[in-house]
Design brief:
The structure is a single chain. It is built from nine helices and twelve strands. The chain is α+β, with helices and mostly antiparallel strands. It folds into three domains: 1-202, PAS domain (Beta-Lactamase, 2-Layer Sandwich); 219-304, Helix Hairpins, CATH 1.10.287; 310-457, Histidine kinase-like ATPase, C-terminal domain (Heat Shock Protein 90). It has a five-stranded antiparallel sheet. The protein has a five-stranded mixed sheet with strand order 7-9-10-12-11. A two-stranded antiparallel ribbon has the order 6-8. β1 (89-94) and β2 form a beta hairpin. The longest helix is centred in the middle third of the chain and has 51 residues, at 153-203.
Length: 464
């Protein structure tokens, strides 16, 4: 999986990348601690050495002041400047108005008035440049100030080197850690995507899919092996349940058909009175309902097994919807229900015409069955870039919110539907058809009424 094909926003939210970021921060802190130790052991050592030298000179000058007074101190400072034993030493002696009394600087540095504190300032040189100086101010006598310092050009340069190295080093660490974390996350995301892709295919009904192994024998391969074993067990159990259900439906369908035919033969015999004939007709109706239920179960099983996918081809959903509308228009008029169709344009997709026609007719049949007299039912198609949305909306009583998630299950019938004919398999068949087309069914109340939407992709991976 290349970086440009990865959703970077999702990648940054992965646990692998977040763990990499934590380690990156921990490593950065470690580098900062290391730089701090090196800084303290080198630059800090030089600072302590310079401070000790300045403190020693201040102590010596203070002793000279105590012995020889003000004039003696001025002479000592002047002699040290003239001897130039150490050109890096800075001496500056000034009165209360900061007028220079002695020293090797031509003016008192600005804002260096407090005594007993360490200062760093830039001293002008003869060639027009500057040199950094570290100094300390000593209060002498009444309102006199003595500044003693040393040039720290090498120390300042060492600090700049450390600062540059710290910035570049930490920047390099962050860049390498971030890049490494990104690529580690991509590798982990590739493995997780394989698992998610397989899971989606299984959710869509293809229970034969398994998570591929790459042979690394790592935790992902171990997880894939366990999940695949679990899927094998689930598929075997579901196959057994489906086989039992199909066998029962097949085995019962034949005797029920014979029973129904026998009842039909008895029905045409006119030797019974009216009461017996009515009872016989009711038995025939019940037999028809049982046969319809078994036929629906067998059809749902065939759809869920994918037996119809070989018949998928490019079809016009709007044309199928208009045909279903024409078929149910008389029934709606008979119940004084307004049936409207907004399917004027061609909407092509890849699918099975017979299955989609059955799904649309089931939705129209449900709406017309439960909408009261004078109500309305609307069949509409909305076009989107990569999918088509078919909607059947009515003005009926709707479905209680706590029952919406159950109406797609087999044999589920609400209390208000008990008085109507049916077997509770209508929406189950619609859901099976939609899932075979890699779409989804949405059931929602519209207060008043119910709206069932089928979102169908234009392409359903027909090569599969």
């Amino acid at each position: 999986m290349a970086l440009d094909t990865v959703n970077v926003r999702l990648l940054l939210r992965t646990s692998t990348f977040q763990l990499s970021v934590r380690y990156m921060l921990l490593f950065t802190i470690s580098v900062l601690v290391l730089f701090g130790i090196l800084y303290w052991s080198t630059v800090g050592s030089l600072y302590r050495e310079i401070n000790a030298t300045i403190e020693a000179e201040i102590s010596g000058l203070a002793e000279q002041y105590e012995r020889q007074g003000l004039s003696g101190l001025i002479d000592v400072v002047a002699k040290r400047v003239q001897r130039k034993q150490d050109e890096r030493s800075i001496y500056l002696f000034a009165d209360s108005s900061l007028r220079l009394l002695a020293g090797n600087m031509d003016h008192w540095p600005q804002d260096l008035l407090a005594t007993g504190r360490w200062f760093e300032f830039n001293k002008a040189t003869a060639n027009g440049g500057t040199v950094p100086v570290r100094a300390k101010v000593l209060s002498v006598g009444r309102n006199l100030r003595l500044l003693v310092g040393r040039e720290i050009h090498e120390l300042a340069e060492l600090k700049r080197v450390f600062k540059r190295a710290a910035i570049l080093g930490i920047g390099a660490v962050l860049l390498v850690a971030f890049t490494g974390g990104l690529f580690i996350s991509i590798a982990a995301e590739r493995r997780v995507s394989m698992i998610n892709r397989t899971a989606r295919q299984i959710i869509e009904g293809d229970l034969s899919q398994r998570i591929p192994l790459i042979g690394s024998r790592d935790e992902y391969d171990s997880l894939a092996i366990n999940i695949n074993a679990m899927l094998d067990q689930i598929e075997a159990l579901l196959s057994g349940i489906r086989h039992v259900g199909d066998s029962i439906a097949h085995d019962l369908k034949t005797p029920l058909t014979r029973l129904r035919n026998k009842l039909e033969e008895l029905s045409v015999d006119g030797s019974r009175d009216g009461t017996q004939q009515i009872g016989l007709n009711k038995c025939i109706e019940e037999s028809d309902r049982l046969l319809a239920t078994f036929n629906a179960l067998l059809r749902i099983a065939q759809i869920e097994s994918g037996a119809y996918r070989s018949a998928f081809r490019t079809i016009d959903l709007a044309e199928i919807a208009r045909d279903a509308f024409d078929l149910y228009q008389p029934t709606a008029e008979e119940k004084q229900i307004t049936l409207a169709c907004h399917c004027d344009y061609t909407e092509r997709l890849f699918g099975d015409r017979e299955l989609l026609a059955q799904a649309i007719m089931n939705l129209l049949d449900n709406s017309i069955k439960y909408v009261p007299v004078g109500g309305h039912v609307e069949l509409a198609i909305q076009s989107e870039s990569d999918r088509v949305k078919l909607t059947v909306a009515d003005s009926g009583p709707g479905i209680p919110e706590d029952e919406i998630t159950n109406v797609e299950r087999r044999f589920v019938r609400l209390d208000q539907a008990r008085s109507e004919s049916g077997n509770g398999l209508g929406l189950t068949l619609v859901r099976a058809v939609v899932e075979q087309h890699r779409g989804r069914m949405i059931v929602e109340n519209t207060d008043p009424g119910l709206r069932v939407s089928l979102e169908l992709p234009r392409s359903t991976l027909g090569a599969q």
